[in-house]
Specification:
This protein is an alpha/beta fold. It has eight helices and 13 strands.
Length: 297
């Protein structure tokens, strides 16, 4: 274990900031006999087969707690509930559920409900893929990202197809990935490493047919299908969001391509939405605007 004052990022514990101390504590648990603590959430709801299978697969590896939405909250992204009260209820199986979004669940858990800081946040297993542009809307990714925003290594896990076919294989695959983390073979298990956010999609195949995890970039989809309209019983027009579009960029190297080949796809995500490549272009544009405004005065 790393003793106080031995942090590789600073010579003494007095100089070590809070984030580094948290990573050091995680490292110590990973490489000692201390029990790792994992928080599980999802967007399909606390009764979904995916989260039940994930909990069953991981409970022998770590101290696992579930805080998940009461109902399905697909496509809620990172939304937090700010104008309605939230309630936490304990289910008969020990899970806790919240009448809010996936991000609400993780946020509440990390800011007071648990009373401790987990070493890992895992969201899933989702009923259907979260690849390409899906990640922007995904409540599964939103729950994991909430953990990441708090500086905790986080994973979003989804099955490629809906219907829960070969769910046990997906749960076992997730367990094996977490075991690698427990063994210190992943970068995030090192004390100096920054927290990471991984988006994982697992094809609905038997365990023996799944190909090795493959690091991929996100693909892209075409525009979504047309909105669906219906007449309500009172004659008003109702609108339903259409289905996701087909893959637009599924070239080799994307998550779409790898999943189609039978690989478990792994995509590291980040939160920074800045268009760094075009910053200089917009800086020049802003300078010209200032010049024009100055000449008009």
């Amino acid at each position: 274990m790393i003793e106080p004052g031995a942090c590789p990022q600073c010579p003494t514990s007095d100089l070590c900031n809070g984030a580094t101390r948290d990573r050091r504590a995680t490292y110590n648990r990973l490489h000692s006999k201390a029990i790792m603590k994992i928080l599980i959430s999802n967007d399909d709801g606390y009764q979904a087969p995916g989260i039940v299978a994930l909990h069953e697969a991981l409970k022998g590896l770590a101290e696992v707690e579930v805080v998940a939405p009461e109902h399905n909250n697909s496509a809620k992204s990172n939304a937090l509930t700010l104008h309605s009260p939230l309630y936490v209820t304990s289910a008969a199986n020990g899970f806790r559920y919240v009448n809010g979004t996936p991000a609400d669940c993780v946020h509440i858990a990390l800011t007071g409900l648990l009373g401790y800081r987990p070493d890992l946040v895992i969201s899933g297993i989702n009923n259907g893929a979260n690849m390409g542009d899906d990640t922007i809307y995904s409540g599964t990714v939103g729950a994991a990202m909430e953990g990441y925003l708090f500086g905790i290594p986080s994973i979003a896990v989804s099955q490629v197809e809906k219907g829960w076919r070969e769910l046990e294989a997906a749960a076992q695959t997730t367990r094996e990935l977490v075991q690698q983390l427990l063994g210190g073979s992943l970068p995030g298990s090192r004390p100096a490493a920054e927290p990471w956010l991984l988006n994982i999609n697992i094809p609905n195949l038997p365990l023996g047919q799944l190909k090795a995890p493959k690091i991929c970039r996100l693909g892209r989809r075409h525009s979504a299908e047309r909105v669906i309209t219906q007449a309500s019983p009172r004659g008003d027009t109702m609108y339903w969001i259409g289905g996701a579009g087909a893959a637009k960029d599924d070239a080799e190297g994307t998550d779409f391509h790898a999943a189609l080949q039978g690989h478990v796809t792994v995509t590291p995500l980040k939160v920074d939405l800045t268009d760094h490549e075009r910053l200089s272009y917009w800086a020049q544009t802003a300078a010209r605007l200032v010049q024009r405004q100055g000449s008009a005065l």
